[in-house]
Predict the structure of Group II intron-encoded protein LtrA.
Amino acid sequence: MEFEANREDNLFRAIEVLKDGTYQPGEYRVFKVWEPKERIIMALPFFDRVIQHMIVNFIEPIFEKRFLFHSYACRKEKGVHEASKTLSKWLYELEVVQGKKIYAIKGDIHHYFQSVSHDILKAEIRRYISDKALLKILDRIIDHNGIFPPGVGIPVGNLTSQLFANVYLNKLDQFVKHELKVKYYVRYMDDFIILSEDPAELRRLLAIIEEFLRRELRLELNPKTTILAAKNGINFVGYIHYKDHKKIRKDARRRLTKLLKAFETGEVELEYFDRSIESRFGHMEHADTYNYIRETKKTIEELKERKAV
């Protein structure tokens, strides 16, 4: 509201500090979120977020045309559900249509955002951008990393961080596709899946990828990275994927049960409860959850009727 009260002046100031190269990022507001897991969020003032939108609108197309098609995080016409559809389609084609027994690498990069090397990120950006004035501003944003040690980390919460995170791991994407010649590879930010009918080949690929990440990007795989049989379900982007259906994860059900109890005891207000339920159902409806959602809606109706008495 404060920004809008003097919108033209603020936009003019934003344009000026970018044109003359004097833009300095503001102070972060640091807080935690706990769903779907605990994360530290670092939020800039609203003026800075406008600046970041202006920058991303300008530079994103430069990188976008170089990104791998099956990289789905924080990109237009991509996202969680498209990533999930791709994995489901591959599993159906390989296991149902072709009748193969499929295995998967379920890869997860350990503490990704806080581990990004500034030197490597800057070098990767310079492969595509040569404008010195723009690079100075981008360097300033990268180096303004709040609570992280100097030289590493990009804050979760910045629009530029979402783009930089994709730029950084594009190096992995290109290596997996063009050097390792992997056909069934899909990535959503720091999670990736590789499919094959040969578990020995997957073990070989995983060892190569682990060494590449360490050598080229100074990243480590999370210890929970594993090779599994696809018939047991592949946990990816919030769903458990099987060859002919997909389920929601158990923790999603637990969080919904916890929300219902919190509403029943008065810990959360009706307005927040309704918004949260709508969001959760929106996610669940992309899995095979018709009966579960129907029964939960009945429970909610009964709960509201009891509270209204």
